[in-house]
Specification:
Elements: E1 4-13, E2 16-26, E3 31-35, H1 42-50, E4 57-62, E5 65-66, H2 72-78, E6 80-83, H3 95-100, H4 113-119, H5 121-125, H6 136-148, E7 154-158, H7 166-180, E8 185-189, H8 193-198, E9 202-207, E10 210-216, H9 222-230
Parallel strand pairs: 3-8, 3-9, 6-7, 7-8
Antiparallel strand pairs: 1-2, 1-4, 4-5, 9-10
Length: 232
């Protein structure tokens, strides 16, 4: 049984439909790359899973439990955490205080402050510093660490590399490989298609809210991905 299962999900922004009958499955420990151009509906789909933008039609099940209609805080408590686009850190809080915000779900698991600092040693040295005084890459590490502190079973990552220098992106994705080693299921939204496919098991491409391609990340030819991405 899939850990996460979406069946013909349709999501609207007011009267504008953003996602059209999307179905997907993510198994425990599996990583799915969700790719597509800007405006394809990727972030909207993540928001639907977390309850921030509930679907108008279709079902979303997590560990065979229906999520539609549940408030976001209840969904988080069930074991779903999100690293949002733009990081959305708390500007008045220190690095460590931001990380501790992830513990509000009160879930028990392997992730602690010590483990996050082992994953991102630079954060340990800056634990008392305002999160707003960090570089963009360091802020992204805080956002990832905050999500891990919730000890989720499913991690949703929205544009981890957006606006970051290539060296920083490499560091974050090295950490990403260690995070996967803990058996987390992951849905990864990433503009860098090659990188997304390299770190995932399966991929799904969206174009204007519709699925145009899905398959094993390592097996789908790049020309097919390009055609699905651009609608050729």
């Amino acid at each position: 049984m899939a850990l996460l299962a979406l069946d013909t999900v349709a999501v609207y922004h007011g009267d504008l439909q953003a996602v059209f009958d999307v179905s997907l499955q993510v198994d425990a420990g599996q990583a799915l790359a969700l790719i597509g151009a800007n405006g394809a509906g990727k972030t909207t789909l993540l928001r639907a899973i977390t309850g921030l933008t509930p679907p108008r039609r279709g079902s979303i099940r997590f560990d065979d439990r229906d999520l539609v209609g549940l408030p976001p805080e209840r969904i988080a408590a069930l074991g779903i955490a999100m690293v949002p686009e733009g990081r959305l850190l708390f500007p008045a809080l220190s690095v460590e205080e931001n990380l501790l915000m992830g513990t509000l779900t009160r879930r028990v698991g392997p992730w602690s402050l010590q483990r996050v600092y082992e994953l991102f040693p630079a954060l340990s040295e800056m634990r008392d510093r305002s999160a707003m005084r960090l570089s963009g890459g360091q802020q992204q590490m805080v956002a990832i660490g905050r999500a891990l502190m919730a000890n989720p079973r499913l991690l949703l990552c929205d544009e981890l590399s957006l606006g970051l220098a290539p060296m920083v992106v490499e560091e974050i994705y090295r950490a990403f490989a260690r995070i996967r080693g803990d058996g987390l299921a992951i849905v990864l939204v990433e503009q860098d298609v090659a990188r997304a496919c390299a770190v995932s098991d399966v991929m799904l491409c969206l174009l204007k809210g519709r699925v145009t391609l899905t398959g094993a990340s390592a097996q789908v030819p790049r020309e097919r991905i390009a055609a699905a991405y651009f609608g050729e």
